[in-house]
Automatic annotation (TrEMBL):
InterPro entries tied to this protein: TRPC4AP
Signal sequence annotation: none
Protein name: Transient receptor potential cation channel, subfamily C, member 4 associated protein a
One Gene Ontology term from the biological process aspect of the record: ubiquitin-dependent protein catabolic process
Gene Ontology cellular-component annotations: Cul4A-RING E3 ubiquitin ligase complex
Pfam families: DUF3689 (PF12463)
Gene Ontology MF term list: phosphatase binding
Length: 771
């Protein structure tokens, strides 16, 4: 038995199990009380070192420990750390350049050995040692030494499986790392390590637990604040459990019942909003021009730090390629002009500066977007409006956001090996997501226009002899966009120029659709129709050969909002889809996936019902008689065919945020039928369809279960029902009343679903709805 010495490796009177396993496996059986510092073990370790190719790492760790006692000046410790770092850095570089393959012991033996013999724990202990002393005057470490410690820890995180998780489990160390961010010299290394650790942490860290958080954030310069947003994005976003739309509503509702109190992410959002000046500084970061950003020398210095820091190193590949392409001379240029326009002297710094600024803005826009979608949405909205975020972005649109000559093929690999997004692609998508969140069901959406465009909306309302929308009247014109075009108009221009296979089409359509969401505004629709939006969408759906389901869904949703209750829109539609072949192509796209197109179907049904009640207007009569789309939907058999398919493609177990609209669209069809006294006709048709398909009771029982779920889901006190009311112009009270009538257990009621299900087939699968 070897008596343990009082040193780091055996401070707990036992060696880490994995160390013991290695020594037992490769040397001889030992009692679990051993110590790497013991003189008897050194020869054994040295002998084994040669055969196992440990490259002297255990011995170096022993020396590192001995030289790092509390009263040492750490100069020797730093030299030893640099020697260790040189053994690990090449493995980390190899790991990053190979797209972060899964860590394996055989692939990165030095990093594995370093962790195996306690190197990670030793560096953590050294870094945190000043916090453990009782002395008033805390010992101060050299900044370069701290940077190298952080660098080695990060190398271990990316190369050795489990290191990041073990660090994430130490809350004391995670909170300690935030204190290192006060020092600008060590900020970038600290921020990158924290981001990696928080990315694997099981629970979201509570920002309010960080010592002096408000003072820390206020001490950051704008560059530090932008990088800090990378960390904040992890702390204010709900844990990613996959595609949100794919989680069933049953599971989500059950989760909400279990967690009635605000989540940690929501609490962190409130914490950030309470930091004085935080949102204002983010708005300034998001809207500042490249010329206002850091000087070229600072940019180059930070990019050099990134290169050393590995995780962001590949951004230089894109920057160098971009600079080379920009600086390619024409054949007529002389040698002198070549020297004068050297990329290193002129073009490279500017290219770096632009992409550098874009990468900052991506992080900032993401944080603002998350806050806009949180519980404090109205508070955030007011702050973004007051700090003129939208006018600022409008001023950057042509020069930075949607530059004419962008190199979108420059790929920068992120941590996800399946993601090949350049900084500019990420920037554009984040910008479009922000516009979508900003406009969606909020009166501030009119800030996306300039004064002339607001006047145009007023003129449209005046000409149509309808009152102006209250939100338009109340818009503070000092906060709207400047210049000849507002942000929405600029977006429409680039949207029409986008290539058919562009990945931006989906996000552009979503952003424009969000402007139309809410209570239907004729003036808003006409503003967009006059700019050729409807024809552009129809071209994409009918003539461009678009196959993307996501893009088609976004176009169908946008068409639904653009055409709803608008006779001019249906006239324009009929003019574009002027042949039978085009109309059949359009209907084929609709029928190919009702989950994607049901919002447009809902729009057509609602518009048809509205127009049929206005037949004293000759213009309406003309539209009803000439529009092929309205004529198609006017036939009861076609509406019933849609109704049957809408009910048949969903059930309670598969309902998600994405397809629940199918249930609401089927309800709209039945509510309109009930208004006209035709509900029994529709229910009987569904019953006949069941028997024709030889599945009696299946369809109607499925619909019963769906409606029971609807009551639980939408009658919840926390559920906002205004969206249903605004999108349909049907009072929510009528929605509730119709569902109650359909669910009536009285089998003699002609409007109750139960009346159309034969007794032997009643309540099939009802237990599936039970929690």
């Amino acid at each position: 038995e070897l008596k343990p010495l009082n040193c780091y490796f055996c401070a707990s009177q036992s060696l880490r199990p994995q160390h013991l396993a290695v020594i037992r496996r490769h040397t001889f059986q030992l009692h679990n009380r051993i110590c790497l510092c013991d003189a008897l073990l050194i020869p054994l370790l040295q002998e084994r070192d040669k055969r196992a190719k440990w490259h002297g790492i255990p011995k170096l760790l022993q020396k590192l420990h001995e030289s790092s006692h509390p009263n040492s000046d750490l100069s020797q410790t730093h030299s030893l750390l640099k020697e260790l770092s040189s053994l690990l850095s090449m493995e980390a570089m190899s790991f990053v350049t190979e797209d972060r393959k899964s860590a394996q012991e055989s692939t990165f033996p030095n990093t594995y050995t370093f962790d195996l013999f306690g190197g990670v724990d030793l560096l953590v202990e050294i870094l945190m040692r000043p916090t453990l002393t009782m002395k008033k005057k805390k010992p101060k470490m050299n900044d370069d030494f701290i940077k190298d410690c952080l660098s080695v820890l990060y190398n271990c995180c990316i190369c050795t499986e489990g290191v990041t998780k073990s660090l994430a489990a130490r809350n004391d160390f995670v909170l300690f790392l935030f204190t290192l961010m006060r020092n600008k010299t060590t900020f970038l290394q600290t921020a990158t390590l924290i981001e990696d650790i928080l990315g694997v942490k099981k629970e979201i860290i509570q920002l309010e637990g960080i010592p002096n958080l408000s003072r820390l954030v206020q001490s950051f310069d704008q560059q530090q604040l932008a990088n800090f947003c990378r960390i904040l994005s992890v702390t204010i976003s709900e844990p990613d459990l996959g595609n949100d739309d794919k989680h069933t509503l049953l599971a989500k509702n059950a989760q909400q019942k279990r967690n009635a109190s605000p989540s940690r992410a929501e609490v962190n959002q409130v914490t950030l909003l309470n930091i004085p000046g935080f949102i204002e500084r983010l708005c300034k970061l998001a809207t500042r021009k490249v010329s206002e950003a850091t000087g070229a020398s600072d940019v180059l210095q930070e990019l050099e730090d990134w290169y050393t820091w590995l995780d962001n190193a590949l951004v230089l590949d894109a920057l160098m390629q971009m600079a080379t392409e920009e600086a390619e001379p024409s054949s007529t240029e002389s040698d002198e002009s070549l020297q004068a326009t050297s990329p290193l002297r002129h073009r490279l710094p500017q290219s770096m500066k632009i992409v550098h600024e874009i990468m900052y803005k991506v992080e900032v826009l993401y944080v603002l977007c998350v806050l806009l979608m949180g519980r404090q949405r109205n508070q955030v909205h007011k702050m973004l409006a007051d700090f003129r975020l939208i006018p600022g972005l409008n001023n950057l649109f042509d020069s930075l956001i949607w530059r004419k000559f962008t190199s979108s093929n420059h790929v920068v690999h992120g941590q996800n090996e399946n993601c090949d997004c350049s900084p500019e692609i990420s920037f554009k998508i984040q910008f479009l997501r922000l516009l979508q969140s900003f406009s969606d069901h909020h009166e501030n959406k009119y800030l996306l226009l300039n004064n002339n465009e607001l006047n145009e909306l007023s003129a449209i309302s005046l000409k149509a002899n309808i009152p102006e929308v209250e939100a338009l009247v109340n818009t503070d014109r000092s906060l709207v966009c400047d210049g000849k075009k507002g942000l929405l108009t600029r977006l429409l221009i680039v949207m029409r120029r986008e290539p058919p296979d562009s990945s931006f089409r989906f996000w552009q359509a979503r952003a424009v659709e969000s402007f139309l969401r809410g209570a239907t505004s004729y003036a808003d629709q006409m503003f967009l129709l006059k700019r050729g939006l409807l024809e552009h969408i129809l071209f994409c759906v009918v003539d461009s050969g678009c196959k993307s389901r996501d893009v088609l869904q976004s176009y169908f949703d946008l068409l639904g909002e653009l055409m709803k209750f608008n006779m001019d829109a249906f006239k324009r539609f009929n003019k574009y889809v002027s042949t039978g072949d085009k109309f059949q192509t359009f209907m084929s796209q609709i029928n190919s996936s009702l989950v994607d197109s049901n919002m447009l179907v809902r729009c057509i049904v609602l518009s048809l019902d509205r127009f049929e009640s206005q037949t004293d207007d000759l213009n309406v009569v003309e539209v009803l008689s000439e529009c092929c789309l309205l004529s198609f939907m006017a036939r009861v058999e076609n509406r019933l065919a849609f109704l049957f398919r809408l009910i048949n493609i969903i059930n309670v177990q598969t309902l998600t945020q994405e397809n629940v609209s199918c249930l609401n669209t089927s309800l709209v069809v039945l509510m309109l039928a009930r208004r006209r006294g035709k509900l029994p006709l529709y229910l009987n048709a569904l019953r006949e369809k069941e028997y024709t398909e030889k599945y009696p009771g299946c369809l109607l029982n499925n619909f019963l279960n769906l409606l029971r779920f609807w009551q639980r889901h939408y009658l919840n006190k926390d559920k906002d029902s205004t969206c249903l009311e605004n999108s349909s112009c049907i009072p929510f009270s009528y929605w509730k009343e119709t569902v109650s009538v359909l669910l009536d257990s009285d089998r003699t009621s002609p409007c109750a679903i139960a009346s159309y299900i034969d007794e032997p087939f009643m309540d099939l699968d009802r237990d599936l709805l039970e929690d």
